[in-house]
Amino acid sequence: MQIENIPLAAVLGSPISHSKSPILYSYWFKKYSIRGHYIPIDVDPSNLNQILRVMPKMGFVGANITIPHKETVLTIADQITDRAAVIGAANTLSFTKAGKIFADNTDGEGFIENLRQHYPSWNPKEGPAIVLGAGGASRAVVSALLQNSTPEIWIANRTRARAEKMTADFGARLRVIDWYAVGNFISEASTLVNATSLGMIGKPKLQIDLKALSKKTLVSDLVYAPLETDLLLFAKNKGCRTVNGIGMLIHQAMPGFSRWFGTKPAIDHEIKNLLLA
Ligand code: ATR
Fold it and tell me: What is the pLDDT at residue 216?
């Protein structure tokens, strides 16, 4: 009797128990009747290289990468997409049969696709975007907005030097604005994105001056716990289009699933509810 090889994929991080990716994958395997396994693996940084090298030989077709390995994997991968290189981190690895590792970053694509799904008429070219934060999430958002022809991006971050590093990395369409001066620019923003951890359960509140926010601005918060942050609530009451962070979490996982298992999953309410449960 021949035993069928069932494709394997994983999420690697440390700690890993908090990861929502296994919930997404097991839901999609079932929904699309796909034979596959997706497992969370807690990997110590000192073992990352060795483990990644052996995974293709074990039948793994790919892996998602999370904290604290998203930057380090770029030093291990054999090939890196331009977007992962400019962001400086990867979240999706694909393995060839010969054992080569191909690194990509789908966070920015997930961000844009999520906005487009909620508001198909949203036009990133329409005007400037304000992005709060200068960490990995912000870099992914900025890279995707630039790719989608946003004319100017104003970055505000508590640690100004980190934002300034981004202008050096991403170029002339970025401009640093002072964290405490965001309120002076807000009326002109077509898109406003919170890419900090502020407003998340257990973190301090996001305290920026929103008085001048225009109802024409699309406001997106990458935070998804709580689903409706104070920022989104304020924006909604102003009449703005608002987008919470749960959809980005799903959209950034979709390219890996379709690459590795050959089916592009669709977004539905059930998966959102499962993730929030
Ligand atoms: P990620 O990769 O998820 O973006 P990160 O690199 O830790 O995570 O970045 C978190 C972001 O939230 C940063 O922009 C951080 O600002 P600093 O660069 O000044 O650290 C921002 N952030 C976190 N706590 C904050 C706080 N209390 N006040 C203002 N910004 C905060």
Answer: 97
